[in-house]
Amino acid sequence: LAQAGTAAVITTGHVPEDALTAARAAGLPVIILPLGTAMRAVHQAVLTLITNRQAQTAQKAAQVRGQLEQLVAEGTGLESIVWAMADQTRKGVIVQDKRLLPIATWSHPTLSSVWNDILQSLTDPDRLPRGWTDRKRVANWRSIEHQVLPGGLSRLITPIVVKDVARGYLS
Questions:
Q1: What are phi and psi of 147, to 5 degrees?
Q2: pLDDT surpasses 90 at 54
Q3: For 100, which DSSP code?
């Protein structure tokens, strides 16, 4: 189930110990409900939770967009925009130019001890997702990529596109 992309298993009654051990090894949560639990009601509750979460995410995205648009309109500068993004996401934020040099950054406190190493490593073009060194081609993709980095870190990265060319990158 874990290999098929299952997020969790919900069942009722007894679950054999070997099944629980296999689930633990695969990192697959198992939720055991009492016998007689109405699975249809559980299904509806889960769907409601997911739907509410999606609505909350959309609302948060609109709020962040509004805040960033206001900062741009006020001409507060790139550092203020990066800080606002970091504040909203509670993550480190890096804006790099086309040569991958950081032009605006904000470190999350949990990253402060390794932030300079992170910045240095991300100036290596080999750290860009595959195919992203072609700035005209990546501009047409307009995608956000999840990238695993050394040290147990990861980032979301997207090109900053101006006039159909990637002029930099936002992580």
A1: -130, 130
A2: no
A3: -
Asked whether the beta carbons of 103 and 95 are under 8 A apart, the reply is yes
Structure tokens at 36: 């007689």
Rounded CA-CA distance 46/126 in Å is: 41
Q: What is the DSSP letter of 168?
A: E
Helix 39-74, helix 78-89: angle, nearest 10: 160
Q: Which residues contact 124 (CB under 8 A, 6 or more apart)?
A: 100
pLDDT class for 106, splitting at 50, 70, 90? very high
State the pLDDT at residue 66.
Answer: 80
142 neighbors 162 (Cβ within 8 angstroms): no
Which residue did the predictor score with more confidence, 3 or 45?
Answer: 45
Q: What is the DSSP letter of 91?
A: S
Going by pLDDT thresholds of 50, 70 and 90, the confidence category of residue 98 is very high
Rounded to an integer, what distance in angstroms lies between the CA atom of residue 144 and that of residue 138?
Answer: 11
Which CA distances in Å does 102 have to 50, 94, 136?
37, 7, 20
The whole-chain average pLDDT of the chain stands at 87
- Joined together, the tokens standing for residue 159 give 């090109």
